[in-house]
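User: Hey, quick favor. My workstation is busy. Could you predict this chain's structure for me?
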Amino acid sequence: MSYPSSRILVVAWLSVTLVAPPALTASQVGSVALAPPGVSLPYVADPACPGEGCVYGEWMACDSVPLFASVDGADRPVAWLDRNERFTVEHGLAVIHEPAVYVAERPVRDDSIGWESWLPMDEGDTLYVFDYLGEGFSNVWWRGAMREVFQFWRGSPPDSIHPALRRLQASRSEFWVRTNSPGDGTSRWVRVTHPQVLRAGRYDVLPEACPQAF
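Assistant: No problem, here it is.
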């Protein structure tokens, strides 16, 4: 299986107008597609390094970590990183198998719960949340374009949902980083799962973030 490149889509810092998908009405809730028209799944955000302070460079394996020849071959490890082994991350990408999907059950007209940004959604508007960027921002598809938006769809407290929205689909995604295999230096891929791997700098400051290493 080959993944489509996100480069065919609009990236967060470009402004491109595409044909907007039809908005859902209240009677259509529950029959929404997993992705907006024109966006193929899985969607690949390339490059990607989600999360606050995420940077490429030196990382650390908190446990034995499998290496794969490609993102396609996730069920066939070709090598392993040892526990406490440090490795260099050269690149990363996010694979979104299913975006989170929200529908507005009533208008969202203002920043009613105190988040930094929001979208003026009408009843029936559908919001597709793709890859997380960091500091509360994600790439979202709304009214025919990809936008970088703060997480206004979350409620207060943040583990809840905005009272005007209903979540129709939970997100399902993976984060992969590319490194070199120990020994022969061949380019390999690591599927990032916590707390299996983390940035070495974080471990140096906060070793308890890597409990398997002890």
